[in-house]
Design a protein that fits this description.
Layout lengths: L1 H30 L5 E7 L5 E7 L23 H8 L7 H7 L3 E3 L6 H4 L15 E3 L1 H5 L3 H6 L4 H23 L2 H16 L2
Parallel strand pairs: 3-4
Antiparallel strand pairs: 1-2
Helix pairs in contact: 1-3
Length: about 200
Amino acid sequence: MKRIFDLFFTILGLIILLPFFALIAIWVMLDSRGGVFYRQERIGKDQKPFKLLKFRSMRTGADKQGLLTVGMKDSRITRSGYYLRKYKLDELPQLINVLLGDMSLVGPRPEVEKYVKLYSQEQLKVLSVRPGITDLASIKYRNENDVLASFEDAEAGYIQSVMPDKLKLNLMYIQNRSLLMDLRIILTTVLPISFV
């Protein structure tokens, strides 16, 4: 049922958002050099890697300077990228990942291998389900970049504080997941963005 739910709303969403995708693509291309999409390897269900899609919000090659973005004033973020990130519009291409079966609309956010290697045996249980575009942790850490900016060492703060809390929320989701819960998470994710 979850896969049918995902496919129905993903196809509907892609049809509705197609003109919007085109406008964002033009904006990204005009704003800075580089491709429209950013592809990053993430770890998915059963620890299988896949390429996660986003609209490019940073200058080409910026990820070589670090995987974490600290604050919205990170000099690597483009002008269009600032707004795409602020309103989470850079995440929209992940609907394609859902269509391909790499992701679900709701599920634990997929992580890069570097951080997955730090998971405990208990935390690895989050990889027993398809990763999602949104989850309980995405809602709690809606302003994650600003949270990381509050740490003296952003990466240490992420590893020691933010990541374990996210994984705790993800494990709680897995134990209690249902289509009704998924719908509630989607609405909680979308509505604040729509009425900012």
